[in-house]
Structure formats: C-alpha cells, structure tokens
C-alpha cells in the first residue's frame, strides 16, 4: 500500500506561495527562457532589487499557467460532497497530466535520477544529501513533480472511496451519526456463547476503512452519542459526530474536508497493515506448530524446524515485554508477530476476520512461559483463552512455571493447571460489576462487619462450589486468599504485597464463624 494516498495535493495557499517565490526569483525552473534567466538573476540579487526598485513580476514558465488554473479550479470545488467526488477525481488526473507534460517537455530529472547525479558529482554522502535538499527547496520543478505524484494517488483514493460509498453494505453511505454508530456496533455484535471472536465495535471502523487507518474509539452505551476518541483518528470520528454543519454527509466523505486529508505536510498518520497470514508466508508473521512438547516455527506445508523464541520481540505497552502478539485462527492455526500500535494489530494477521483467541505470548526456546488475552481489538473472554490454553496444554508446550493471565477478569496470573481447574470464579463478571463487589466487600471489612478471614472463607466456598474437586482445600484456600488480597489491592495497594505472603490459617475463619453463631 502506498504511503498516505488520502493526502491531498498542496493547498491553495502553499501553491500561491510557490509561484510568488518563483516570481521573486527565489526558485528555479528548467522551463525558463533566456528572458526568464535574466529576470531571475536580477530578481535574486537583493541589492539590485533595492537599487532599481524591482518587484517580483517575472513571468511563469510555459505550462505552469495552465497548471495554476487547474489547481485553483480544483480547490474551488466543495470537498465534503458526494456529487463532487467523480469530478474531483477527473480534475486531479488533468492536473497530473498537465504536470507530466511540463516535466517531459523540460526534461525535469526524476527524484532518484537527481539524487544519483548529485552523488556522482559529490563523493561525500552528507554533502550530496545536503546539495539535493538545497536544490529541492529551490526548484519549482520538484514541487510540480510532487504534485503530479500526489494528484495520481489522490485520484485513485477518491475512486475507491466512491465505490465504497456506492456499496451501502460497507456503511459508507450512512450519514446519520446514531445510525452509523448502530451500524458499527451491529457489525461487532456476536452471541455470548460464540467460540469465535469478532473485532470490537471500538475498532471496527479500522476494518471497514479501505486504507485501515487506526480508528480506535471508546464507545459508551450509557451516553447518547457514546463515542470519545482514544487515538488521533478516534478524535476525528468524535469531531464528525459533534459537527452540526454537515448533517447529510457520510463520515468518510466529510473526512475529505478535514485536516487529515487536506494537510499535505502531515507525516504522522499511517495505515494498519492487513494481511492473510493464514493463507501463505508473509514477512513478519510466523506460523507456529506445537510438536513434541515445544512450539516450533514452520513454513506452510513443511514440518517445524526452528524452535520459536520471543526474546527479541518488544512486546506490547502495558503488557509483558519480550512477548509476541498471537492469534489462534478459525482454522486452528497459530500466527505470531511483533505488535506495533497504529501499524500492526491483532486484526492485521487475518485482515480483521474472526479468530478463536488472541493476545500476547512469551516463549523461551520453544516452551511457553506466559500467555494472556491482551487484545483490545478482539477482547477474548475467559472461555476463549481457556480453549487456547487447553489446546497448548494438550501438546505439553508449557514450561513448569508458566503463567496464564486472563485480562477479561484480572491483571494477575495463575499457573496453567490452576487456570484450567477454574481460574477466577467470577468469569462472566464485568469490570463495573467487579468494582461494585470489591467496594462492597471493602466496606464490610472496613466497618468490621466481617474479618479478612471471613471474606476469604466466603470466597473459598464460592470457588469450591464453582470449580469442584481440586488437589486439596489448602491449595484452594491459598488461591482464595490471594484473590481477595488482589481485589482489595484495587482500593489499598498494601494488600498487593499481602497477596504474596503466607495466607491466614483457615482455622481462624472457622473460629470466627462459630463465634458469630
């Protein structure tokens, strides 16, 4: 995918400044006649300009006048308009054609050719780069060649946008704000017992966008509009929702008048890579295979021959370092790669299609030491992570001290067997429900209505009823104690340290219960 095809050609102000600089003799062009060259000399000489009171009235080169008229006519069209899309694309192609004729007529050097010619004359690489930059800044021809490239890219961008607007199934024609939000929520909706995961509504626009920009938002169902921006792009969606001046303009058409598309100098925006890593070899995506007690990297159609290791992976911010992003595809393949915010997400592996599970995984010499469900694009539930852990455990690929972190319910890890035996007893509990429960228990504990041992005993009984038989009551009691301490750590961080200390004896809880009776 070419870099930022949505960026427009230069603004009318920038174009006018270029022509003004040329007419004042501050820029050069191969389109100059002998008269142009003489005027250019006098125009650049500040002393002569002041002496003879010369003004910047140098004529424009042949071809630039026509290009000037076309660029001004293009900018006169209303950009956020459905009916102007086809006309704008045609005008951009005319601009590109006029610019190409000017470049061909005056034998303007291509960017790469100009760089190489300078390097042949100047042996020092730094000096050659400096000379290239100097010539580029002073050359009207270079500015024209850049406009030609941008005009061609932008015309193709608008053609693609028109096709998506015509196709109502993609939601591009929806202009009403609430209808658009309902549409993306509907695309992300799935049954509670579904074993496959859809992309979340917060990021579904990334999949709908043909250029897969990072449209990450926060959708709050409690609010009428229910959207706030998390990323640069997410804030743009929020701006469209609040813009009362464009009630009948679909989002991606409205975007044509936004700075994201009109600011030609913006270099910060980029696309998220989208691949089909489940259909063939792609650089940066590894196909993993559990075999003989280890996790191997393998080629499509070949047996694994290299042990997978994530020591060189950067991990994911706010998650485990030296970890790779993974998805477990609907076909049962495990794909892994380097997570990079704004460029490579969990949706990148299979172009946003449904998956069985996703998250981050740490592997040392083929042995899995940590696996979690940290994927904001899919947000796996506990059952999805459990299915994946059971699959890996079936092939004995976990290290003895491996940790499983279920991000759906907790930030803290459990041993593999501990997680498979039941994990957190509040599996279907939402974040809000969990905080209500924690604060309720904390209030009871703070008011001395119940002791810490009493709350642990309550947790112990819930776990035993939900998890069923496990190796011993002592193991379950320790787990219940840690769980309560981790919960209370949300209110008072001192309890996070208590979670790793020896638990209170269960006899204390029994004695307290007897005294209460």
Q: Secondary-structure map with pairings?
A:
Elements: H1 12-23, H2 34-44, H3 46-52, H4 64-76, H5 85-105, H6 111-121, H7 125-138, H8 140-166, H9 177-188, H10 204-208, E1 217-219, E2 227-229, H11 232-242, H12 251-254, H13 259-262, E3 285-291, E4 294-298, E5 306-307, E6 324-329, E7 334-337, E8 355-364, E9 367-372, H14 382-394, E10 398-405, E11 413-415, H15 416-421, H16 431-446, H17 452-467, H18 473-488, H19 494-498, H20 506-516
Parallel strand pairs: 9-10
Antiparallel strand pairs: 1-2, 3-4, 3-7, 4-5, 6-7, 6-8, 8-9, 10-11
Defining key terms:
517 residues; alpha+beta; 9-stranded mixed sheet; two-stranded antiparallel sheet; 20 helices; 11 strands; 45% helix; 11% strand; elongated
């Amino acid at each position: 995918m070419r870099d930022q095809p949505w960026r427009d050609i230069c603004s009318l102000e920038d174009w006018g400044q270029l022509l003004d600089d040329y007419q004042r003799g501050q820029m050069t062009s191969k389109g100059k006649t002998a008269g142009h060259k003489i005027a250019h000399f006098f125009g650049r000489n500040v002393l002569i300009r002041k002496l003879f009171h010369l003004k910047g009235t140098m004529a424009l080169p042949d071809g630039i006048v026509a290009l000037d008229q076309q660029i001004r006519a293009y900018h006169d069209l209303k950009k956020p308009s459905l009916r102007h899309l086809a006309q704008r694309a045609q005008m951009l192609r005319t601009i590109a054609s006029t610019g190409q004729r000017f470049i061909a007529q005056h034998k303007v050097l291509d960017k790469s050719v100009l760089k190489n010619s300078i390097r042949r004359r100047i042996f020092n690489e730094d000096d050659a780069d400096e000379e290239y930059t100097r010539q580029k800044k002073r050359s009207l021809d270079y500015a024209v060649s850049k406009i030609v490239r941008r005009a061609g890219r932008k015309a193709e961008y608008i053609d693609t946008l028109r096709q998506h607007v015509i196709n109502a199934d993609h939601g591009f024609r929806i202009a009403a704000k609430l209808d658009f939000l309902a549409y993306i929520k509907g695309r992300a909706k799935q049954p509670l017992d579904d074993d496959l995961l859809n992309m979340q509504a917060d990021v579904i626009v990334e999949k709908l966008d043909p250029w897969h920009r990072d449209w990450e938002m926060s959708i709050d169902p409690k609010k009428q509009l229910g959207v706030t921006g998390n990323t640069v792009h997410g804030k743009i969606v929020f701006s469209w929702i609040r813009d009362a001046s464009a009630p009948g303009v679909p989002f991606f058409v409205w975007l044509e008048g936004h700075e994201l598309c009109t600011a030609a100098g913006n270099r910060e925006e980029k696309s998220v890579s989208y691949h089909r890593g489940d259909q063939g070899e792609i650089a940066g995506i590894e196909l993993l295979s559990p075999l003989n007690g280890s996790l191997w990297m393998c080629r499509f159609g070949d047996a694994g021959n290299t042990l997978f290791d994530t020591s060189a992976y950067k991990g994911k911010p706010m998650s485990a370092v030296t970890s790779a992003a993974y998805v477990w595809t609907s076909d049962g393949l495990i794909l892994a790669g380097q997570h990079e915010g704004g460029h490579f997400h969990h949706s990148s592996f299979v172009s946003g299609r449904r998956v069985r599970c996703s998250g981050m995984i740490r592997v040392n010499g083929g042995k899995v030491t940590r696996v979690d469900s940290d994927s904001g694009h899919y947000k796996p539930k506990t059952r999805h992570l459990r299915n994946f852990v059971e699959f890996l455990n079936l092939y004995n690929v976990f290290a003895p001290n491996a940790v499983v972190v279920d991000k759906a319910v907790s930030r803290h890890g459990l041993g593999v067997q501990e997680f498979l035996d039941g994990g957190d007893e509040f599996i279907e509990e939402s974040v809000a429900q969990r905080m209500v429960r924690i604060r309720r228990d904390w209030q009871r504990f703070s008011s001395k209505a119940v002791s810490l041992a009493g709350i642990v005993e309550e947790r112990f009984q819930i776990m035993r009823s939900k998890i069923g038989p496990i190796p011993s009551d002592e193991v379950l009691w320790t787990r219940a104690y840690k769980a309560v301490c981790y919960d209370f750590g949300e209110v008072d961080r001192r309890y996070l340290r208590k979670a790793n200390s020896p638990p209170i004896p269960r006899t204390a809880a029994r004695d307290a219960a007897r005294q209460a009776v």
